[in-house]
Amino acid sequence: MTTHHGDGTDTSGVDWDARAATFDEEPDHGLRDPRVRAAWAARLRDWLPGRPGDVLDLGCGTGSLSLLAAEQGHRVTGVDRSPAMVELARQKLAGRHAVFLQGDAARPPVDGERYDAVLVRHVLWTLPEPDRVLRRWRDLLRPAGRLVLVEGVWGTVSPVGIPADRLTALLAPLTARVRVEPLSGDPALWGREVDDERYAVVASWD
């Protein structure tokens, strides 16, 4: 699991096991505020398949988005590099149709399984060779599947991230069905006003 913490810094060297206990204190991580939780639930309902299916949540962290997907009837498999994050996700989704695995989001340890949707938030920008990673993720989808990517560009002095136009260009060889949804203007998603570039891309093959 690698993500940003709102200050534009590259956190790829962070000890995520050490950060796991406080990870959910960020409004958009823990989704503890009912308004933030409701905002993400509404977006997921739109992005994910309308009928219950199999969702792969890569870089799942403590499982907050996995939980929303499970509450909407989906069967969830979550993957994260951090054992501590995986354990917290298992606790959060105890009793639900969900499995959590420790592993690399770029090469998920899912043994040839296929999914109706692959959900990835704030992970792609940290990975080398994103074009190859996107092809690998596409190959994890069933024929009518969809790839849901939540990304952005953070920081002003030395911004990090991946702009929406670059991501859509990377997806262009894979599918013509790409929808970009700006997210910066919805403070309910982040628990505050934001002025950087945040967006979701939904690529589909249905």
Automatic annotation (TrEMBL):
<keyword id="KW-0808">Transferase</keyword>
<dbReference type="GO" id="GO:0032259">
    <property type="term" value="P:methylation"/>
</dbReference>
<dbReference type="InterPro" id="IPR029063">
    <property type="entry name" value="SAM-dependent_MTases_sf"/>
</dbReference>
<feature type="domain" description="Methyltransferase type 11">
    <location>
        <begin position="56"/>
        <end position="149"/>
    </location>
</feature>
<dbReference type="GO" id="GO:0008757">
    <property type="term" value="F:S-adenosylmethionine-dependent methyltransferase activity"/>
</dbReference>
<dbReference type="InterPro" id="IPR013216">
    <property type="entry name" value="Methyltransf_11"/>
</dbReference>
<dbReference type="GO" id="GO:0017000">
    <property type="term" value="P:antibiotic biosynthetic process"/>
</dbReference>
<dbReference type="Pfam" id="PF08241">
    <property type="entry name" value="Methyltransf_11"/>
</dbReference>
<protein>
    <submittedName>
        <fullName>Class I SAM-dependent methyltransferase</fullName>
        <ecNumber>2.1.1.-</ecNumber>
    </submittedName>
</protein>
<keyword id="KW-0489">Methyltransferase</keyword>
